[in-house]
Amino acid sequence: MTTATYHCELAWLPDGRVGSDVTVEVTDGRITALSDGHDGDGAAPQGTDAVALPGLVLPGAANAHSHAFHRALRGATHAGGGTFWAWRECMYAAAAVLDPDRYHALARATFAEMALAGFTAVGEFHYLHHQPDGRPYTDPNAFGAALVAAAAEAGVRIALLDTCYLAGGFGEELQPRQRRFSDGDAANWAARVEDLHRAHGHADHAVIGAAIHSVRAVPADQLPVVAAWARSQDAPLHVHVSEQPAENEACLAAHGRTPVRLLADAGALGPRTSAVHATHLTDRDVADLEASGTHVCLCPTTEADLGDGIGPARQLATAGVPLTLGTDSHASVDPFVEARRAEWDQRLATLARGHLDADALLRALTRDGQASLGFGDAGRLEVGARADLVAVDLGSVRTAGADPATAAAAVVFGASAADVTDVIVDGRPVVEGRAHVLGDVGAQLTHAIAAVREEAP
Amino acid sequence: MTTATYHCELAWLPDGRVGSDVTVEVTDGRITALSDGHDGDGAAPQGTDAVALPGLVLPGAANAHSHAFHRALRGATHAGGGTFWAWRECMYAAAAVLDPDRYHALARATFAEMALAGFTAVGEFHYLHHQPDGRPYTDPNAFGAALVAAAAEAGVRIALLDTCYLAGGFGEELQPRQRRFSDGDAANWAARVEDLHRAHGHADHAVIGAAIHSVRAVPADQLPVVAAWARSQDAPLHVHVSEQPAENEACLAAHGRTPVRLLADAGALGPRTSAVHATHLTDRDVADLEASGTHVCLCPTTEADLGDGIGPARQLATAGVPLTLGTDSHASVDPFVEARRAEWDQRLATLARGHLDADALLRALTRDGQASLGFGDAGRLEVGARADLVAVDLGSVRTAGADPATAAAAVVFGASAADVTDVIVDGRPVVEGRAHVLGDVGAQLTHAIAAVREEAP
Predict the structure, then answer these.
(1) pTM of the model
(2) Of A56, A145, B74, B435, which has fewest CB within 10 angstroms of its CB?
(3) Which chain A residues are closer than 8 Å to B105 by Cβ?
(4) How do residues B36-57 score in pLDDT, each as one tens digit?
(5) Are residues B23 and B50 both part of a single domain?
């Protein structure tokens, strides 16, 4: 049994209050005691061996939607203009040259970048399964295993959302570059994922979950098979939904229903499900998401970068749909940037302020984000929870001026990933004094991205 | 005569090319020689005393629109929701308690934050002139002098855009909290500014320019007086234009014309003029801005934070209107964040990519931004220009993966202010190894903001 004690100058507590002089005792990766100076039950650090965490301490943020290999595209897709669909061609070129070893190195560095930013868990929406021509590797889960290992080495938890991807569009064959994504049908997908789950599903840092790439990529008759597998394992099920108007139009043409309704009819919605993006929704879609308890994962920077548009975040929140946040294509890896963009985009769309406040955005980043990945025991500073602690400097040029009353808003609306000083994941220090235990993550990213680019045609 | 030589690993050159191994010789604050390794005329640093600037070196960015005291509001205005107009009440409360000494300390720290981010010049849109009850201080330019001194100490150039502010709205008296902004009429304003110009207009680091707060705050018959003073001094003239639909509606009701047309009719547009925001424009407004050669200053983060809406940046650029960028209310002080948001907001509004590319955004930040402040000899790496050099780390977790072909886009779309390592302004090193010559700027901001908040009612 290992015990450590942390003394937080300020901490964001589950009731939304910012407590001062909060002492957190951690035993075997869990919070085993927590005392709040303002409760009058012992403000000072107990003993001299408490580790001081200055600034504002948050529970760990969850990066609820990630495609790790997209990190190699950052900054490299802006030359040509075009649309989401042109960007997708750049992305396919990167996907075409990855193998499990190269992806392991790239993902480890990308996950370490996330840890440095204050993310303690990642939802990896993983559809790169097979060799470029579609044949399985000797280990058909070589990529998935590489990603699970990469997360462990980078010190973050992973929900490996193994993605079913079968078609190139409604009633369309796979394109050649999509072949490596496909298992042929959902039954084959489930059999492969079942193996992955047996091998890695019981690691403390990993959840093996499911994903439907989209209603474009999984035929309607295959959707219930994926949903049934996730249900059988009580596992998270994520799905890209209505990111682009073209998807809605094609779905209506093929099925006479919106993507949300098609998923609802397939039994794919519910509290374990996350609808990713959900940018172009009808009022009926919002009602279906709410009624089923489905999460909606916003990826505001990616949605801006790809020109997806501004979704109905305020309407969803008001309806009671739990929101989560993800960095998706990793144009930026910064929880605070995603959080404030979610609010700022609503302001731009409505010409009014005050849609998602700092507490709501922090809940999306932490409690709801973690729950959406199957880590329902994380994302809050309370006894029994996983011991994730993220300390944010309140004295940087970006955050200076914060006081206890405004600290949560100062961080959400002003901090950057560069202000995260210390990150503890499941009780293990991963980032100390802005340095990751893996060393120079920038250099590791440079090396891993160069290896991918060298192979690109 | 002092000479220094810098060796830039990569540098963004005036033709938009990124050169490798660029050597820059600086004498008395000007670039006196520049050799580009790719020209074959001497790539290596000349002699052993060249200072190495790793990463991508940019000419200095101009923060073309600033209200320095708004820095005290960062993170502190999000609780209540509401609109731009509710936010303005928070801002007035901060303005009410400033005196020249407190403002000097706050502005110095805020300008130092700008230097750390890679801004080498600031356009300070300054309307806080008098005592709270409207009476002049013993030195009627005590505030202006404090701001000019603060910039010098922080190591950045300043265009002090002394602002005429006379009315509380179209045909409306000043509100009590607006009294300290007013000189009574434009002739009094001009007389005071003339004194300020005599005292400070010949400092190498300062330009004394003019501003019309808005067509709301300066009656139509007073506009030509302000424009005439700026013309007589060949000085920049900035004006808030059409930030909010309510301004347009009130202007149309009062004058039967849009704000842009009213300014055009008053002789207030032209190449020395910057229309700040220009968010809600008619096609005729765009044509008037283009025909007159007026700059448009976008402040994307502030426009998001205040719910102003997304302006027609693409339309303006296509029409040939030179764009500049400013951090305005300082919700964020980061040139790269402003630049990419300008493009990303266009993507959100149009659902397509590729409106303002990295080169266009860097030109707005540097050459056009500097020119809009009266520093037409700055903002480009060429012989004869002011020696502003800003080095951006290409090996951080944010920028890793950049290569010479993608370096400009990697910085514009991926870097943060935290990636700026070295800043030289007019040949003077101001930031070295991410540290400002003034020391701990975060601590100075904390102290200065606390002093303002202590006085707040």
Answers:
(1) 0.96
(2) B435
(3) none
(4) 875 544 445 455 689 999 999 9
(5) yes
